[in-house]
Amino acid sequence: MKNIIEILKEKDIAPSMQRIKILEYLQNYKTHPTADMIYQALADEMPTLSKTTVYNTLKTFTEKGVLVALSLFENEVRYEYTKEPHIHFKCTKCGRIYDVLKTFKCLKNENIEGHQVIEHHVNLRGICKNCLEKVED
Amino acid sequence: MKNIIEILKEKDIAPSMQRIKILEYLQNYKTHPTADMIYQALADEMPTLSKTTVYNTLKTFTEKGVLVALSLFENEVRYEYTKEPHIHFKCTKCGRIYDVLKTFKCLKNENIEGHQVIEHHVNLRGICKNCLEKVED
DNA sequence: TACAAATTTGTAATCGTTACAAAGTAGTAT
DNA sequence: ATACTACTTTGTAACGATTACAAATTTGTA
Questions:
Q1: Which nucleotide is nearest to B48 (CA to C1')?
Q2: Helix (H), strand (E), coil (C) string for chain A
Q3: Is the dihedral angle over the CA atoms B13, A91, A86, A37 positive or is it negative?
């Protein structure tokens, strides 16, 4: 908790209750949730929470570099709180998202063919280990 | 033109006029267009073309492996007709999408930590060469 | 010519996200 | 304390890409 407040202050974000709870959720649940999932999860505890607040907060956090937004071939954005660069694997059967290749070399801040890279996302899609084992035939 | 018909037949897709025109557009314009862009471009020539047809066609093409769909952090899907694996770089200033690192080693069909990879997408974001040169200060 | 299957079309609905303005909260100077 | 300002939160309405659906059209074939 104290930790979260420090993180927000370091990024010049006022540590309001809503912001603390949202970041806390993303620290605790590494499920790459959507804005709506976060809203649903917190709505019980914070009955007056607005979905707009969740969207605003996630936008602020992403802009300030607290969170990373993921674009994984869905019509929705997913978010994660992470420190080390890694790759995402999405199973097309069960829909689960896995963090893989933790040692992945990131091109962030490098220059590729004259372009300055600020973000580097690698998205794999396929059948996950779990679903491969379950194959019925 | 003949070429396009062959491509569709090989994939078991009936080469209707709409489908031919849509694939032709993607062969000619390597701009990673959205469904709407394709629709707008073809609407003059085909006044009764329906946007639903464009969506249906792009879905069919993607499922049959004629096209590749791109998820580049926008609330819209982009499409490309391509043969060699490559990486996409999207400029956050001008919005242009570049194909880079044509020699990129693809993990397609490989096994990563037990998961079977079917698609491998690499998305870079940053400031493109063009916009870097234009910096005013 | 007739019939069945595939394709196209237009409209309405869905759903994630954003715009906007009002209401609430906090900090600061008087 | 009070008033003023800036920031944050909230709820509703709007937006825009995409999909559902059923009718209309086209195609292939008996």
A1: C9
A2: CHHHHHHHHHCCCCCCHHHHHHHHHHHHCCCCCEHHHHHHHHHCCCCCCCHHHHHHHHHHHHHCCCCEEECCCCCCCEEECCCCCCEEEEECCCCCEEEECCCCCCCCCCEECCEEEEEEEEEEEEECHHHHHCCCC
A3: positive
Across the interface, do B132 and A125 touch by the CB < 8 Å criterion?
Answer: no
Residues of chain A with pLDDT under 70: 1-2, 135-137
- What φ, ψ does residue B124 adopt, rounded to 5°? -105, 145
Best residue of A116, A118, A129 to probe chain B, by most B CBs closer than 10 Å: A116
Give per-residue pLDDT as tens, A44-67.
999 999 999 999 999 999 999 999
- The set of long-range contacts for B30-34, using a CB threshold of 8 Å and a minimum separation of 24, is B30/B80, B30/B99, B31/B97, B32/B70, B32/B72, B32/B78, B32/B79, B32/B80, B32/B88, B32/B97, B33/B78, B33/B79, B34/B76, B34/B77, B34/B78, B34/B79
A 10 A CB-CB count for A97 gives 21
B47 in contact with chain A, both atoms CB, cutoff 8 A: no
**A22 interfacial to chain B (CB closer than 8 Å):** no
For B75-104, the pLDDT digits (tens) are 899 999 998 889 999 998 888 999 998 788
Task: Collect all residues with Cβ–Cβ distance below 8 Å to A82 and sequence separation of at least 6.
Answer: A68, A99
Q: β-strand A87-91 against A115-127: which pairing, if any?
A: parallel
